[in-house]
Structures are given as structure tokens and as C-alpha cells.
Amino acid sequence: MENEPTKNDLEIVPNEYEETDYEVNVSIPEFNCICPRTGLPDFATIKINYIPNKYIVELKSLKLYIVKFRNMGIFHESATNKIFKDFQKSCNPKQIEVIGEFGARGGISTIVKVNSK
Amino acid sequence: MENEPTKNDLEIVPNEYEETDYEVNVSIPEFNCICPRTGLPDFATIKINYIPNKYIVELKSLKLYIVKFRNMGIFHESATNKIFKDFQKSCNPKQIEVIGEFGARGGISTIVKVNSK
Amino acid sequence: MENEPTKNDLEIVPNEYEETDYEVNVSIPEFNCICPRTGLPDFATIKINYIPNKYIVELKSLKLYIVKFRNMGIFHESATNKIFKDFQKSCNPKQIEVIGEFGARGGISTIVKVNSK
Amino acid sequence: MENEPTKNDLEIVPNEYEETDYEVNVSIPEFNCICPRTGLPDFATIKINYIPNKYIVELKSLKLYIVKFRNMGIFHESATNKIFKDFQKSCNPKQIEVIGEFGARGGISTIVKVNSK
Amino acid sequence: MENEPTKNDLEIVPNEYEETDYEVNVSIPEFNCICPRTGLPDFATIKINYIPNKYIVELKSLKLYIVKFRNMGIFHESATNKIFKDFQKSCNPKQIEVIGEFGARGGISTIVKVNSK
Amino acid sequence: MENEPTKNDLEIVPNEYEETDYEVNVSIPEFNCICPRTGLPDFATIKINYIPNKYIVELKSLKLYIVKFRNMGIFHESATNKIFKDFQKSCNPKQIEVIGEFGARGGISTIVKVNSK
Amino acid sequence: MENEPTKNDLEIVPNEYEETDYEVNVSIPEFNCICPRTGLPDFATIKINYIPNKYIVELKSLKLYIVKFRNMGIFHESATNKIFKDFQKSCNPKQIEVIGEFGARGGISTIVKVNSK
Amino acid sequence: MENEPTKNDLEIVPNEYEETDYEVNVSIPEFNCICPRTGLPDFATIKINYIPNKYIVELKSLKLYIVKFRNMGIFHESATNKIFKDFQKSCNPKQIEVIGEFGARGGISTIVKVNSK
Amino acid sequence: MENEPTKNDLEIVPNEYEETDYEVNVSIPEFNCICPRTGLPDFATIKINYIPNKYIVELKSLKLYIVKFRNMGIFHESATNKIFKDFQKSCNPKQIEVIGEFGARGGISTIVKVNSK
Amino acid sequence: MENEPTKNDLEIVPNEYEETDYEVNVSIPEFNCICPRTGLPDFATIKINYIPNKYIVELKSLKLYIVKFRNMGIFHESATNKIFKDFQKSCNPKQIEVIGEFGARGGISTIVKVNSK
Predict the structure, then answer these.
(1) How many of the other CB atoms lie within 10 Å of CB of F72?
(2) G to F contact (≥3 Cβ pairs closer than 8 Å)
(3) Where would a tag sit more exposed on chain G, N or C end, judged by fewer CB atoms within 10 A?
(4) Contact at 8 Å (CB) between B85 and C17?
(5) Which parts of chain E register pLDDT below 70?
(6) Contact B22/A68 with Cβ under 8 angstroms?
(7) CA distances from I1 to F88, I6, I68, I75, I90 (A)
(8) Rounded to an integer, what distance in angstroms lies between the CA atom of residue E54 and that of residue I4?
(9) Cβ pair F111, D25 in contact under 8 A
(10) DSSP for F11-75?
(11) Strand partners, G33
């Protein structure tokens, strides 16, 4: 339990360009979690697009946060929504979108997109 | 007859993130039905993009629903519209789009797009 | 003369889903006509995107209509506009766009786009 | 049973260019059969490359032969080997290769290649 | 001097479909001019997108007009703007966009886009 | 009849580099003929790869030769073999290969390859 | 320890076409193991190409065998060689090649190829 | 210190087409700087899209300005924002967007986008 | 006349690694010459692959040599063979291949390949 | 001087699979050095393909070795040959190939390939 990813895993650093609205696109092709039904691993690419407010998220901590999902049983929709919420709570961006592109299961592939508006 | 796909084939599960408007994109490259004129099989990729309301559609049941089309005589326009309606009735999404991309026949390929607005 | 394509070559069938606004995209990569200046054949891909009203155009008849252009002397702009008008008159769609993508001549390739708005 | 594909479904026509060794490559992206374990449909692209001898296989009959596999329970290796043998018996080509490229199952995709040497 | 391209090189022909607003996209991948600084040739693809008014530009004359740039010393911005102005003066289109995509120089590639609005 | 393509349509010019064995690859994406069964046009890309001997084939005449096929009823295998033989007789190359890549019919696409060895 | 993948995890089934030499290409894009230095997960695509002898490897068991690597600390070269050896011992193929394509680390990506000759 | 890139490195030349609003897209795939944490080089493609006002930036000076980053310790966000500000101060464009596409680090790739609105 | 490209335009420098057989591949996408029949410019990509002997060709001089072709009337076969011979005479490589990939004329594109064996 | 890359920068580790001939392909897209003529940076992708003997090269040390080139003045041919020799001396592989793919300069791009045979 104590090993699960939480918003506290995401280290934040002050945004030096807070006065400008600029966008950061982060792409993480090596996401891994466990399907709660089959117990088999699910692979995905996670994309996070955000407009920083007072803070940006440090990339090394983001990587370690993402790695913590790999032995966690979680559905596609939940994983994407959880990353969205953790990221939002940690650095409170002006805008944010999280996209989870999951590999095919039974010939069906799924993309989940959550964004603040 | 009793073997034809109906909205009841689509199992629904509660949407845990009902308060957020998020999008789910499902892509099914292995759709198969029968051309009512020639009796020959038609191949398509079906794409379903929706914003869940109170329910999401369970993927395994969606797969079995799709498989039921393979021995059914149905036109391109009808197949796409039927999936649209069955999906809508089953989980009543906030928004939905169904796209059927059909393989070429006589050198002509066809895409049918239905969406709620 | 009597062999030229006309709107009457396009067979129409009732649209079973008239109450929904859905889009049909038809792609015909094997269009052929004659350049009125050089007498040499011109090759194109014709794309027809429309929102059906009371009728949809039957694909087999569309194919035979398109084949009739192959010995007809006609300019790029005229061929695309003629298909647009014939299609419009035959099934009176809610919206329609016709795109002709013509192969390079003298190192210059041309696309013609006509749409109802 | 009587509905299963056999070599007799493949119509042959005399090869007018028997004296030249030329190659014919046929690609059939719309192959469908049934997985004997799960009962679910398997999708594949079948490629047949051969050097005709006294006969070539007529394409329309090849298509109908291929369509007969769609309700037949058969493994990937068996389907590819069966097509190889039926084709060989029907037109006795100088050389032949059959390739079956099957869609992913459980995240694993398979290609089977059989050839005469 | 008398060999430089001018608007008079562009032959115009009446637009038979003046009443419809349709778009013509012309792509010319073989543009060549001389860099005024180095004296070396610059290569580009020129794209012209316009909505014809009373006239369309004849393609053969457009080709010869373009060829006249090949020994002319002219900067990227100027070449694209000159084509824009010459085209506008010659056929007075309802709308026009000219795009010059120039090959890399010193590892930097440049695109210039001019349009009427 | 007198309008059918023959080897005499292919103009030859002396090969200035006869002493070197060099290869010429010609690609003609706009081939058109008539299917003898359906009467409908067939589209193909024709590729000719040869090592010239005393003569090379002039490209303009090759184009006009190819255009002559467009109203001729001929099978895929025959068209490719005929071009092979006509080319061989006209310029007697050291080596030659002719490839005909035909568009899909009934979901099956065909490539025919003939070469001298 | 007892959880590590071994050759016994690979189920074999009799090869019905033992008399023909045919090739099977298996592609597994979702391989995962642990880097022994950093403790972080490594992602790879594993490709197995083999000519079956008396047995073929059953795909479901292959998948479960592959999944067992995901919490195992192992280097790129060792993982690929281990799969090669386990596969060889389990079904003793006439020929076999195993390719491990590993994702970039520090901007360097690595491919390991082992084959029997 | 005196070697660091500044807005004064960017030479400007008068914009001859000031009266027209046209866009210039510059793409620089060979950007290099130093990661302040690891001391290792970071690689990026920098894209600058702007609508010139009274001046355009001379490309040779832009190249030399960009080269000055290669031994400078600077974060992704800072590098992109600095180029944005230097460019803005130097030629005061009507509109400007700067995009930095950075190569993957630890399997995560980052894009930073700054624009004036 | 004195302006035509000759082997003397190709500057050579000593090959420091003469004892190793290594290959150099040079690709020049911006070749330009004049068609002797139509007087219009022809565009090509020239590729030179060689194994240096005692000398390598300096790239700046190669570029200037290539530029000299742009106002010269010369056929595709001749241009490729001339570059082959000039390069061979200038640096006498252990092996050399020259490939000229010419843009489409009348819908036909041509590649000429010359190599020493 | 003492900062230049040497074979001693390449750490080696024992090859556990010395008895099998297997291939390792390493791809390094972020190579950087200085052009000795212009003083400007040159960018390349370096590919190293080798069959290990008693040792393999450790990747982290390879990365640091490669980074040392970035402020070194060296020609394309020399850089590729130097890496080839350093690698060969450090781990004495059974076979090795080094490929340097350098970015375009003056519109000409160069690939250098060295291999042991």
C-alpha cells in the first residue's frame, strides 16, 4: 500500500516564467500497470500537456511516480484520471490534459483523455 | 435471429469519474459483416469516441457484441448507425461519435460517421 | 455524346437514418479523363463527402458514373464541379464537398475543392 | 463439412506465358477464420507468391476459396499450410510461397511462412 | 532584366464556375532561384491555394513563369511575396495564399506564408 | 486493331555509354487497361528496369505506347508479359525486368514480375 | 526465485507439418524487465523467428513465460540469450533467431540478436 | 560569461513587405545545450514561427546565436523562454511562437511552447 | 563552354585511412540541369557511394561542381555517367556507384545507376 | 588534450555468452563534434554493430566516451574511423561495423561506414 504512487511523489520546482502562459508537453512511452481482471500487465503511453502556474513538475520525480504504477492493479480510465488528479494537486497548473494510450487487448485499443477546461 | 447483436449485449459498469468530462476512444480494427447484395464479407475498422455519463461500456462485452455482426447481412450506413444507437441506449453517454471505415469495394472505399451533437 | 456521365447515372436509395445527421466519405482513387489540350489521359483521386438527406447514392452506380469520364475531354476544374453538381441534383444532400486530386503535369500537381456551405 | 475450402474451389486457367519464368504476387488483406480454442474470429493478410507452370489460378475463385475459411476452426500454422498445399495441388506452380500475417492476440502477433524450394 | 518573371507571364482563362466558391491548390516542387548573398541556387516547393474569381491561371504559363526565377537573385521572403502579388494582380482571386518551403541552409530550413484575408 | 500498342511505337536512340553496364529504372504510375471479363478499367503502376545494350528507349514514345493500352481488353499477366516482350524486341537490352502492380479487385491486389535472366 | 521464467513454462504442442520447413515469426512488443544497475524497468520488443521441428510453442504459455521477466533483474544481452536458450531447449527447432529491441537509455538504444546457424 | 547568447547576436534587416502580414517558420534541428543537473548535453529541435513587423532576423546570425547555447547550462523551459524573449526584443514581431522539442531523457521526452497572443 | 563541370573542379585530399576499406555515401538532393529537348530544367537527387583509395573528394568542391550542371543541356543517362567518370578520374576510388533519381516528366520518373564492379 | 576520447574511456565487462556468436546493435542519435574548417558543430547518428568476443562494452562509459567528441575538431571520416579503432582495441570484437550518419552541410549529407571483415 505505502508503495502506491501519490501526489507527494511529484516534486515541484518554482516556475521562473510564471508571467508567460507557456505549454509543456511530456510524453512517457513506458507506462506499465496491472489489469485488475486478468492480473496481466497493461502497457501504455502517457502524455501530459500543461500550462504551468507557480510550479513545474520535476521530470525525474515524475518518472519515479510513473514507475510506481507497474505493480498496481488499476483500470485504464482510473489510471488516467488518477495521474490527472495527482498532477493537478501537486503543481496546480493553469490548464492540464492527460492522455493514456493503451495497447490493444482482444484486438481493441483504448485511449482515455482527461482535461481541465 | 436471436443471435443478432443488441444493446443488451453491451455490459455497463458505473463510471467512477462521472463528475469529470473525459473522453474514451475505442478502436476495433477487426469488424466483419455480410454485404446484403453479394453475400460476401465486408471488413471495417470501427471507432467509438464517447464522453461517459453514469456508465462506461465493459470492453469484453463490446468485443462479443461486435463479433455478432460477422454473419449478419447489413449495409455500411446501417451497421454504423446501429452501433451508434445501441451504444447510446446502453450507456447513455454525454457525447458519442461512431466511425465505420470500410475496405474498398470496386475500387471505392467508404467511411460513415455518426455523432450526437 | 449519349455516353457522357449525367446525374441520371447516379441511382439513389432511401436514407433509412434521415433523422440523424451523419456523414459519408467516399474515396475513388481510380478516376480517369482526357486532357482537352493534349488528348492524353489525366489521373485523379475523387473524394465525395456528404451528409445524406432523403437519399443516399448507390455505390455501384457511382462507380459506373465515374467510369464514364474516362474518354471525355474535360479540365480539372470542370470535372470536379460537374461531379459536385450531378451529385447534388441526384440526391440533394444536406451538405456536400467534392475534392479532385489530380496527378502532376509538368511537375505541377493540382487539387480542386468544391463544397456547399 | 461440405462447405470447407478444398483445392477444387480453385479454378485454373492455362498459362499463356509458360515458357517464361515470371512471378505473380497476390495479396489478400481480408482473411478470416475461427480460433479453435476461443471460438473467436482471427484476422489475417494472406500473401501468395508463385511462378506459374502450365496454369494460373483464377482470382475470383481464389477469393471465394478464401471466404470459405471464415467459419472454419483452424490454427494459424494449419491455415497457412493448407492454403499452400491446396494451391500447389491445384495449379502445380514451379515455385510457391504462402505467408499468413495474423493480427495480435494477447499482445503477440504471428507470421507463418511456407515455401517450396 | 527583360527575362525576369512578371504578372504578364501568367495567362488567365475565364472561370466557368464563377458563381461557386471553390478552391484550387497548386503545388510546384521544383522551384529554383539564386541566393543574393552566396550566388548559389536555392531550392523550394511553392504552394498556391486560391479561390478563383472571374479568371483562373493557366498551368503551363504558371510553370514557365516559375522557371524564370531560376537565374534571379532573390531572398526567400521576397520570392514568396512576389509570387503572391503577381498572382493576385493577374487573376484577382477572391482569396489567395502562397507558401514557399525552402531547403535547409546551414541546418536551418525556412517556410514563408503570405495570404490575403 | 491498328490502334493497339506494338514494339514499333517504342522509339530507340543510340546508347552513348554502351561500354559501361548501367541500369535504368523507369516508373509509370498511370497505366490503364480494360478487364476482359468485366469491361471495367484496371489501374496499375508499371516499372521497367533494364541495362541498355546498343539502344535506350526514348521516354516520350514509351509514354505514348503505354497510353495505347487504355482501351485494350487484356489480363494482368498478359499486359506485363507483352510490355516485357515489346521492350525486349525494340531495344534488345542486356537485362530487363518488367513489374506490373495492379490495384485491388474484390479486395485482392496482384503484382506480376517478368525478367530475363 | 521459483517465480523466474524457465523453459518449463513453455508448453509445446506437436507440429502437424513437420515434413515441411516453414517459418514462424512471433513478435512480442510488451516485454518488461528490471535493469540490475538502476532498479528501473527496461522495455523491449522481443522477436522470435523459428523453423519448427517436432513441436511448436503454444502462444498463451509463451506470453506467461514472457510476463515472468517483468520483475527480474537482468541485462539486455542476458535476457535475449536466455529466451534463445529456453526456447531452443523447449521445442528444439530446426533453426531459431531471437531479437531483443530495447528502448533508449541515456539516448542510446540497443538491439541484441542471437541465432542458431 | 561574455560568450553567452544575447539578443544582440541576432542581426536584423528591414522587412520589405511590412504592409502585408506574412508568416515565417524557421526550423533548427541542431540545437544543443548542457543539462544543469547532469552536465551532459541536451539535444533539441527549435522552431520559431513569427509575423515580421519592421524587421526580419538574418538567418546566419540566428544560426550563430543558436550555436552559443551549446556549452551553456540551462533547463528546457528556460532555453525556450530565453529564445522567445531575445527574438522578441531583437525584431519586435507582430506575433511569435517558439517551440523547443527536446530528446528523451529517462524515457521521457518534453516539448516546450511559448507564444505571444 | 569553360563554365561546364569537369573533373578538375573536384578537389581531392589525401585519405588518412587508406589501409581500411571504408565506404562514403554522399547524397545531393539539389541537382539541376536543362533538358536538351524542351529547354526546361530537370531536377534530381544524386547519390555517390564510394570506397576511397588514396584520396577523398572534398565536399565543398563537389557542391560547386554539381552547381555547374544547372545551366547545361544534358540527358539523364549522360549526366549520371559524366559524374561517374569525373569522380572516378579525380580520386580513383577502389569502388564507386553513382545514382541519379530524376523527377517525373509526363508522369514517368527515371533512375539511372552506374557502378564500377 | 587530456580531455579527448580514448579507448580507455570504454569500460569493458566479461561477455557471459562468449560461446554463442550474437550481435549487438547500438544506436547513438546524439553525436556532436566540431568541423575543423568552420569551427561550427556537426551533428550525427553513430551506429555500432558488433559480435562480442570475450568482452562487451558497458553502455554508460560508451555514452561518456561519445560526449567527449563534442568539443573536438574532427572530420566525418576521421571521427567514424577513430570510434571504429577505439572500440576494436577496447573489446576486440569478433566482427564490428561503425556507421556515422552526418547531417546535411550545404545541402549535401554524408554517411561513413567502416567494418572489419
Answers:
(1) 16
(2) no
(3) N
(4) no
(5) 1-2
(6) no
(7) 38, 11, 11, 17, 20
(8) 46
(9) yes
(10) -EEE-TTTTS-EEEEEEEEEEEEE-TTT--EEEEEEEEEEE-SSEEE-HHHHHHHHHGGGG-B--
(11) G42
Q: Whole-angstrom Cα distance, residue C69 to residue C60?
A: 15
Q: Say whether E63 and C108 touch across the interface (CB within 8 A).
A: yes
Q: State the Cα–Cα distance between residues I66 and E43, nearest whole angstrom.
A: 14
F9 is catalytic: no
Fill in the amino acid letter for D67.
Answer: V
Phi, psi of I91 (to 5 degrees): -120, 0
How far is it, in rounded angstroms, from Cα I93 to Cα I57?
Answer: 10
pLDDT tens digit string along D13-37? 999 999 999 999 999 999 999 999 8
CB pairs under 8 A between A and H: 54
Q: Do I70 and E29 touch (CB under 8 A)?
A: no
Phi-psi region of C55 (alpha: psi -120 to 50; beta: other; left: phi over 0): beta
Question: Is-contact I108 F27, C-beta < 8 A?
Answer: yes
Residue of G nearest to A103 (CA): G30
Helix (H) or strand (E) holding D76: helix D76-91
CA distance B65 to A106: 13
Contact present, J69 and J63 (Cβ < 8 Å): no
* φ, ψ (nearest 5 deg) of residue A83: -60, -45
Quickly count: other Cβ atoms within 10 Å of residue F16's Cβ: 13
DSSP-assigned states of every residue in H30-79: EEEEE-TTT--EEEEEEEEEEE-SSEEE-HHHHHHHHHGGGG-B--HHHH
| J54/I contact by beta carbon, under 8 A | no
**Is the ipTM value over 0.85, yes or no?**
yes
User: How far apart (Å, rounded) are the C-alpha atoms in residues F58 and E41?
Assistant: 30
Strands (E) located in chain C:
12-14, 22-34, 41-51, 55-57, 95-105, 108-115
Q: What is the pLDDT of residues F43-96, one digit of tens each?
A: 999 999 999 999 999 999 999 999 999 999 999 999 999 999 999 999 999 999
Query: What's the count of helices (H) and strands (E) in chain H, helices before strands?
Result: 2, 6
Residue E89 has which C-alpha cell? Answer: 494582380
Residue J8's identity, in one-letter code, is N
Q: Do the chains contact at D70 and B70, CB–CB below 8 Å?
A: yes
Report how far residue H113's alpha carbon sits from residue E101's, in angstroms, rounded to the nearest whole number.
22
The pLDDT tens digits for B38-80 are 999 999 999 999 999 999 999 999 999 999 999 999 999 999 9
CB B97 within 8 A of CB B113: yes
Total count of residues recorded for chain B: 117
Q: How far apart are CA E80 and CA E6, in angstroms?
A: 13
Phi, psi (rounded to 5 degrees) for J30: -120, 55
Q: Residue F1: pLDDT band by 50, 70, 90 thresholds?
A: very low
**Are the C-beta atoms of residues H50 and H24 closer than 8 Å to each other?**
yes
Going through D6-107 in order, the beta strands assigned E by DSSP cover 12-14, 22-34, 41-51, 55-57, 95-105
Q: Give the residue carrying C-alpha cell 509538368.
A: C106
Model confidence at D68, in pLDDT bands (50, 70, 90)? very high
Query: Which residue in the block uniquely carries the three cell numbers 471505415?
Result: B101
Q: CA nearest E8: which of E53, E46, E84, E61?
A: E61
Q: Are strands I22-34 and J108-115 parallel, antiparallel or unpaired?
A: antiparallel
Could you tell me if J14 lies within 8 Å of chain G, comparing CB atoms? no
Alpha carbon distance, N-terminus to C-terminus of chain B: 32
I86 is known as an active-site residue: no
What is the value of pTM for the model shown?
0.94
Top residue of B3, B27, B28, B30 to mutate, by most chain D CBs within 10 Å, is: B30
What does chain G come to in residues? Answer: 117
Amino acid, res. H55: Y
The CB density around residue J61, as the number of other CB atoms within 10 Å, is 16
Instruction: Identify the residue whose cell numbers are 563552354.
Output: I1
